[in-house]
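Quick illustration for those who missed Monday's session on complexes.
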Amino acid sequence: MRVLGHPGTLLGLLLLLVAPGEPATGSPQAKVDCICHNGDYVICDWGSQQKPVHNYSFYFWFELLSKPSECKDYIQKDGLNVACHISNYDLFNSMGMHLNDSQGQTVVHQELRLSNRVRPGRPFNLTLSNLSNHQLLLTWKTPYEIPECLEHLIRYKSNKDTEFMEHSIVNSLKFQIPSVDPEKRYTFYVKSKRNNNCATTDLWSEESEPAFWGKEDMSPPLLASIKTIVIPLGSFLILILLLLALLRMERVWVVLMPRIPNPSKKFEDLFTAYQGNFSEWAGVSKDDVETFKPNYYEDICAITELLPSGGYLSASSEPTAKSGGPPDPLPDPPPKTSPDPAALTT
Ligand SMILES: *[C@@H]1O[C@H](CO)[C@@H](O)[C@H](O)[C@H]1NC(C)=O
Ligand SMILES: *[C@@H]1O[C@H](CO)[C@@H](O)[C@H](O)[C@H]1NC(C)=O
Ligand SMILES: *[C@@H]1O[C@H](CO)[C@@H](O)[C@H](O)[C@H]1NC(C)=O
Ligand SMILES: *[C@@H]1O[C@H](CO)[C@@H](O)[C@H](O)[C@H]1NC(C)=O
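Prediction with 2-acetamido-2-deoxy-beta-D-glucopyranose bound:
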């Protein structure tokens, strides 16, 4: 057990209890999966989904060839080998493989039967033809070279159904739909896998493009009209609204922040044409200038101060003068700063 030999034995044991069979070492153990794409070529993948911890090298052999040979066509991701493209393969013998880490240590030794790892290409050219009595015939094509080895899954539903109906067809490229309503709109899909006569597999192909039959759905033209009319019109309206909003904001802005007037006259003129006469340069009339000049004289206000023994200081604003005289033996009560609430009520 790899787990028990690991330094984190306790954690390993715990993990073993929780998920027996899962590798519990710090680095996830590499695993190779090979898929034969439509019988054309094989891709063996160990790191395209999850970044591998080593720059592995890949060796494989078939029973007949038996001598391991290194991958000649690596697929790389971020500079690391993550998969191998193999064009020379043997479907009918088991395939052996090694994954060596960067130190040349073999970390994975696997075997598999490629015949169970064939993934057919997706079906295409789905065609629907009318039969009598509201029956339909669906036909399709497959890119896979041995159609006798295929099983197909047909999925269809009308626009009134919520769930798809499913039908499986072995070794045939047509399917008869028992009863359809021409008032409805039907959608069909087909996918394929190698059937039980040829393989033990669940590797389905990609699903075909959809095929349609029945009354034309209103949604595609409606969608088209939305695209061609509503969207441009809507954007135009939004633009207009934005412009209006902008204008309104501009007006508010002008009210809030009146523009600083540009000086209408050049400063140069002050010194050339007006010889430094500022009031003339500024356009203020002689009379106005006169009014600015002080034309009155205030009487000199004589402030007299009585001696402390005499009583008040004439110019003092404070009614209780403390500037002169001996301090009062008792301190004055603190002056009321706020009006007396009792005085307010009377
Ligand atoms: C990984 O190995 C391949 C050759 O198998 C080499 O081309 C690639 O540069 C190596 N990447 C790193 C990161 O060492
Ligand atoms: C890698 O794996 C191959 C094939 O299993 C083996 O012969 C070889 O010794 C291993 N190490 C190196 C460094 O190639
Ligand atoms: C698909 O079917 C149509 C008519 O049934 C045919 O004209 C067309 O060539 C077919 N396409 C392919 C790729 O076979
Ligand atoms: C098949 O039937 C549908 C619905 O009744 C009709 O719209 C369509 O034209 C028919 N196609 C042929 C080839 O008769």
